Amino acid sequence: MTLLIKNALTYIDKTFKKSDVFIKNGKIHSLGISILSDNADRVVDAQGKYFLIPGFVDVHTHLREPGFSYKETIKTGSAAGARAGYTTLCTMPNLNPAPDCPEGLKAQTDIIDRDAVIEVLPFGTITKGRKGSGEIIDFKSIADKVVGFSDDGTGVQTEELMRQAMTECARLGKIISAHCEVNDLLKGGYIHDGEYAKAHNHKGICSKSEWAQIERDCLLAQETGCHYHVCHISTKESVDIIRKAKARGVKVTCETGPHYLTMCDMDLQEDGRFKMNPPLRSAQDRVALIEGVLDGTIDVIATDHAPHSAEEKSKGLAKSAMGIVGLETAFGVLNTKLVKAGVITLERLVEMMSVRPREIFGIEGGEIKEGAVADLALIDADKQWTVEPDSFVTMGRATPFKDWKLQGENLLTIYRGEIVYESI
């Protein structure tokens, strides 16, 4: 199919310029003003008010297959991503079997090849069985088939094990994407060890359980030369450690999530839809995260989309499963609370959701120019809507953003030149 997007505010050279974009054979064929529509099978008029951007990339999602398809499937998760304007999802290895060897990985990639409606790139594990302890995997055996390596959901517990992993990944030119959590510091906690926990008699998770491993790993990354990416940072100390490591020249990048940038522990309610790991931290932590976005310490915003069944999320803060869904709310929440509020520009948000993830993880795309892959999203930055979880495409329904009134929604998703979602 040939496709012509007319009159779009198009993300070109890191700014928005009005342009037509003609798409052919899965690529951007040409850009310009007043491209003739005669040769296009389909014409979409952006009316001079919709933004055409590189498709979003989420480097931290849980699509639950194989092993947990009652929570989510590759098909439903990738369709939810397409609805939200994502053209690439990187899926974490909390699976059964774990992708810690070629056979375990193939169980996942066979489903991706069959069911994904956009690009889905798997992570391999760091340790055998994704235990965070024991033995590292044979990285070379799956290195060319994964976007990176992670034990997400589990921190690598010993310095020597992480040193071995980083040394091998540096040799292979692969990235480690680390969930940082010191098990000995958790002490049964399940929300932030802060004001809300104390006021409501909940067990808290201390901030040091996160930042202590980041501090350790930044030193190891400096020693080994490994590219070290930190998952879902949530504390002010984490921001400071990463900022200082970058200043020393350490090859470290990081992500945070929409919920950490827009909520804190005093926004908690006695409901499982507010429970995730790491937890919502203090208001001071949230301010530090925003400062990290503003000064470039934080590279990427990723959702940590983590669907669970209704039953698993129905047991309150203490006993519900950790994790919330995030794909279908991410742009609306961030556009409303950061862009419309004047905290960052739309260009900066696109950089963090579309461009930097590709640069860090070596994913094709990120520019709208002749010859580039046509992985694109058409965004209405002013559209008003209310978060209604029952209308989600994802099988998960647990979101702390339920009933939020937002501005900004995806209208059209183009993957490899084909329309995979539209509501225009």
Strand count: 18
Helices and strands, in order, run as EEEEEEHEHEEHEEHEHEHEHHEHHHEEE
DSSP helix count? 11
In what range is the share of β-strand residues? 15-25%
Largest sheet: 8 strands, mixed
Low-confidence stretches: none
Rounded mean pLDDT score: 98
Structural class: alpha/beta
Taken from the alpha-carbon principal axes, the silhouette is: globular
Ordered list of secondary-structure elements with their pairings:
Layout: E1 3-12, E2 15-24, E3 27-32, E4 42-45, E5 51-54, E6 56-61, H1 74-84, E7 86-91, H2 102-115, E8 119-124, E9 148-149, H3 159-172, E10 176-178, E11 191-192, H4 195-200, E12 204-205, H5 208-224, E13 228-230, H6 236-247, E14 252-256, H7 258-262, H8 283-295, E15 300-301, H9 316-319, H10 330-339, H11 346-361, E16 376-386, E17 405-415, E18 418-422
Parallel strand pairs: 1-4, 1-5, 6-7, 7-8, 8-9, 10-13, 11-12, 13-14, 14-15
Antiparallel strand pairs: 1-2, 2-3, 5-16, 16-17, 17-18
Helix pairs in contact: 3-5, 5-6, 6-8
